[in-house]
Design a protein that fits this description.
Layout lengths: L7 H22 L4 E2 L5 E2 L200 E4 L11 E4 L8 E8 L4 E5 L2 H4 L9 E6 L5 E6 L3 E6 L8 E8 L31
């Protein structure tokens, strides 16, 4: 049966076949070779080339409902959607959203995978996220990690804030079983979390800042009795009292300790105590070798005496090796006494109640958290 191409049905079929013929010609004639994410040259089964301006594309999809604008699916081993860009500072895949996510991904190994190859990628990230107000990259998981990043020599995660935001922000939504807002782990000699500040403002810049409305601003713990829960390589300044927790015979539990106050002095000192006895009214006491190794013996030290009997004692002489104690009035008693030595530490300059400029706590924005609640 013949059909008139100028009739209604004939014209419709002619248009369809003409469109299919034109699509096949464009597809066959414009197939171009591109590079995959590993830099290998590949030729797609179907490709379309064009020369469009910024904000447009060779292939575009618009969906006014809940589906995807562009959907890619691979039932084999390759990616569902792959994009590459050869221009400087250009992106292989770009996503923009006025309300939701610019790019969303989900998978058994990771939601989004990005890596950079080639000689120009020595300092470039695999995935870059940028935002005018919210987070540049947001990761969420119901059991594993929301975002996983690894690197052989550079940083696993690199976050930079140009304005008043945070370079990296982490949050934990609370609860007795909640994890950490930010967790860092190291199996080597370096710290699990490192904080650095290059501000040259003396006594004001902080490498790490910790704040808690009720608990501990910074909490350090060690599993060994020979190591330290908190270590400061340099001076430590406490705007408040220093407490030490001790045990007791009654009333103490695993979490309830007796809090003792640390003594404060007007200048750096180091003390030693001991007990000995007079013999015929005289005692010569040598400074302990380990104590003498830590004090500045070019400066005088103080000796305080506590007799343990009916006698009055005084310090007759002090030298770099020790001191001599005698009984008042030339007495020749043989009695025990205790002593306390207060000396200047070795290597410290002679300061007395100096003024110090300390950081203003609110300047560190303790309550600022820039994350989107789930």
């Amino acid at each position: 049966m013949t059909h008139d191409l100028y009739s209604g049905r004939g014209r419709g079929r002619a248009k369809i076949w003409g469109a299919l013929t034109l699509m096949a010609a464009v597809t066959a004639g414009s197939a171009i070779a591109i590079a995959d994410a590993q830099g290998h040259s590949v030729r797609p089964d179907k490709a379309k080339s064009c020369s469009s301006g910024q904000g447009t594309g060779c292939v575009a999809g618009t969906n006014s409902n809940a589906g995807a604008g562009v959907l890619g699916n691979n039932t084999g081993t390759g990616p569902g959607v792959e994009g590459s860009a050869t221009g400087v500072d250009e992106v292989g895949v770009s996503g923009v959203s006025s309300k939701g996510f610019g790019v969303g991904g989900s998978g058994a190994l990771g939601g989004v995978l990005g890596f950079c190859t080639g000689s120009s990628c020595s300092d470039e990230p695999g995935v870059t996220g940028e935002s005018q107000s919210g987070p540049g990259v947001d990761g969420f998981s119901t059991s594993g990690a929301g975002v996983v990043a690894s690197s052989d020599s550079a940083d696993g995660v690199d976050g930079t804030a140009e304005g008043s935001g945070n370079g990296v922000s982490g949050a934990s939504n609370g609860g007795s079983q909640a994890g950490y807002g930010v967790q860092g782990t190291s199996s080597g000699k370096n710290a699990g979390v490192g904080g650095f500040n290059s501000d040259s403002t003396v006594n004001l810049a902080a490498g790490v800042y910790g704040f808690s409305s009720e608990g501990y601003g910074v909490y350090g713990q060690t599993g060994s009795s020979s190591s330290y829960g908190l270590y400061s390589q340099g001076n430590a300044f406490v705007d408040g009292e220093i407490f030490t927790g001790g045990s007791c015979k009654d009333g103490c539990t695993r979490t309830r300790h007796v809090a003792a106050f640390a003594a404060r002095t007007s200048q750096p000192t180091i003390d030693d105590v001991g007990e000995t006895a007079l013999r015929d009214g005289v005692a010569r006491v040598a400074l302990a070798a380990d104590f003498a190794n830590t004090v500045d013996l070019s400066k005088p030290y103080v000796v305080m005496l506590t007799p343990e009997g009916d006698a009055s004692l005084y310090v007759a002489s002090r030298t770099a090796s020790g001191f001599e104690v005698r009984q008042v009035g030339g007495g020749r008693s043989s009695i025990a006494f205790a002593y306390r030595i207060v000396a200047k530490p070795y290597g410290f300059k002679d300061e007395r109640l100096p003024f110090q400029t300390v950081a203003n706590g609110p300047a560190f924005k303790p309550h600022r958290i820039v994350h989107r609640p789930r």
